[in-house]
Amino acid sequence: MKTMEVEIKNGVQRWPPERCDMPDLSRLDGKHSLTLMLNRMFRRGGPAEPRAFALVMNFVRITDKLVGDYERCRLAFQEFIDTAALAAEFRTAGARA
């Protein structure tokens, strides 16, 4: 694959990239929404007001999804760097667990 230089604020960046600098978030599992729901059912945890609980539940659910999507994107980017194949980038756009 042909290497080209792309100008950025701090200097010159090579394309395609040679390493993945995205931090690994795999330690953040996507089970926080399940934990919150079970805590609510069995221990009356979370906000007492139904609207507040719905807002907290949606925030936790969306955050769990974002962490999972981020991790899949990071893995696909690492695969792209390792193999220099664009298929990984296209697969990430519609990836679902």
Q: Layout of SSEs?
A:
Blueprint: E1 4-8, E2 11-15, H1 32-43, H2 50-83, H3 87-93
Antiparallel strand pairs: 1-2
Helix pairs in contact: 1-2, 2-3
Summarize the structure in words.
There is one protein chain. The chain is mainly alpha-helical. It has one domain. It is built from three helices and two strands, in the order E-E-H-H-H. It has a two-stranded antiparallel ribbon with strand order 1-2. A hairpin with a 2-residue loop joins strand 1 and strand 2 (11-15). Helix 1 (32-43) packs antiparallel against helix 2. The longest helix has 34 residues, at 50-83. The chain is elongated, with a radius of gyration of 19 Å.
Structure at a glance:
The protein is mainly alpha-helical.
By DSSP (H or I, 4+ residues per run), the number of helices equals: 3
Number of domains: 1
**Contiguous runs where pLDDT drops below 50 for at least 5 residues:** none
Number of distinct beta strands = 2
What class, by secondary structure content? Answer: mainly alpha
Per DSSP, what share of the residues sits in E-state strands of 2 or more residues?
Answer: 5-15%
The largest sheet has its strands arranged as 1-2
- Biggest beta-sheet profile: 2 strands, antiparallel
Q: What is the C-alpha radius of gyration, as a whole number of Å?
A: 19 Å
Q: How far apart are the termini?
A: 30 Å
Helix content: 40-55%
Mean of all residue-level pLDDT scores: 76
Shape verdict: elongated
Spell out the helices and strands N to C.
EEHHH
